[in-house]
Write a structure and sequence with these properties.
Elements (H helix, E strand, L loop, with lengths): L1 H20 L2 E4 L11 E7 L9 E6 L1 E4 L2 E4 L1 E6 L2
Parallel strand pairs: 2-6
Antiparallel strand pairs: 1-4, 3-6, 4-5
């Protein structure tokens, strides 16, 4: 089982490195202010540690190519 998990992890790292070589970056905006141009709000989540209207949880990472958004990050927004 350890070999299998290690192989999957190595494949994932290689895939993300290939994307980076082509200028595509993974976006994980945890704790950032909510920006509807870069984030897709799925819902709200109460949080004592994250300020209101900031990203409390990233459900699916987003991707950008330079300044161009390829896929918005799907997030939960803090309700405070």
């Amino acid at each position: 089982v350890k070999n299998f998990i290690g192989s999957i992890d190595a494949t994932r790292r290689a895939f993300l490195e290939t994307l980076r070589r082509y200028g595509i970056e993974r976006v994980e905006p945890l704790g950032e202010p909510f920006d509807p141009n870069r984030h897709e709000a799925i819902g709200h989540a109460p949080s004592a540690t994250v300020p209101p209207e900031h990203v409390a949880q990233v459900l699916q990472a987003g991707y950008m190519e330079g300044e161009r958004l390829l896929r918005p990050a799907r997030v939960l927004i803090s309700g405070g």
